[in-house]
Amino acid sequence: MATRTMRIVPQPAALRTLAEEITACRACPRLVEWREQVAREKRASFRDEEYWGRPVPGFGDPGARILLFGLAPAAHGANRTGRMFTGDRSGDWLFAALHRVGLASQAESVSTDDGLTVRDAYIAAAVRCAPPDNKPTTDERDRCLPFFSSELALLDRVRVIVVLGGFAYQALWRVLGADGVALPRPRPRFAHGLEVPTARATVLGCFHPSQQNTFTGRLTEPMLDGVLSRAVELASR
Hints:
Layout: H1 13-23, H2 29-41, E1 59-60, E2 66-70, H3 78-81, H4 89-100, E3 121-125, H5 138-154, E4 160-164, H6 166-178, E5 195-197, E6 202-206, H7 211-214, H8 221-235
Helix pairs in contact: 1-5, 4-8
């Protein structure tokens, strides 16, 4: 695939303001306590680093046609670095794949100042705080989803939404329904490679690039590349 010319687009004021609102949120006591505890105690390999320890806003190209939607920040990944999928094994897989399909300027995402840019893609999550055991509650999810609803409204060029895992799929369905988007009933069952056209965007299903999936072979590089290549194809129509 031909290499795309990368460009840096300044984040519009509305997205910047929303990001500030997200990072200031303390609505879920359990998540606040956990994310801050992790930031204080740290993992031994990161003991000399200052953890972000706050909710993590989305990031990427404000003019994106492709949105990647995950579960939540990893305790020692985005909760440490302050950028979604940055500094953990899931991000290693995701950004390598984004680079292969021409959506990221480099194959690694290790810190907010590593030079990474993404083109035509934006990355967000259903829950913005790192949850214990990577398992947010339903109430925590629902308190956080209005942030994503606002984000999606501002990302008005998005035509394809790649949901990374069943949790993100269910969360997205709630947001689209609450926003008045006509959806098929019953809701199609989540699956890797699922494709659901809606009036807002085409929804693509992808197994989450967690170690649980990548180490076991449930998700392979060709599988991930296939979904992202399909997203690029649909967004270009």
